[in-house]
Prior knowledge:
With about 120 residues, the chain is mostly helical. The chain is built from 7 helices and 2 strands; from the N terminus they run ααααααββα. The protein has one domain. The chain has a two-stranded antiparallel sheet. The radius of gyration is 16 Å and the shape is globular.
Amino acid sequence: MAKMISNLKGNLAAEAFGIGFVRKEHFWRGEDELWLLWKPILMAKFEQNEEAREVLLSTGSDVLVEFSRFPGVERNFWGAYVKRESAGAVLSIQGRNMMGRFLMRVRRSLCGVSPQTI
Length: 118
């Protein structure tokens, strides 16, 4: 099934997940709506893979960040990148970090805590 889904593109993928036709301009309606799509996928991953679950739970209450080596619109959405000054010191972390936020929600669910928005 994973191979079948990986071959789907655009609206076919949306239909495969039972969310119907999705127009690009209507896709983003907020973090909670996107979470509804990703929650069953991520929960299945960590419920079925004991090693991955243990690693995730071992992070305790740490903030999780999906780091990217390169700045860019797509990478800024799912992860974040470190913006450095010329001397190499960290100035800030840029990006929405959606995958990091979703992994923190999964961790809360696995611990039996309500996966509130993080």
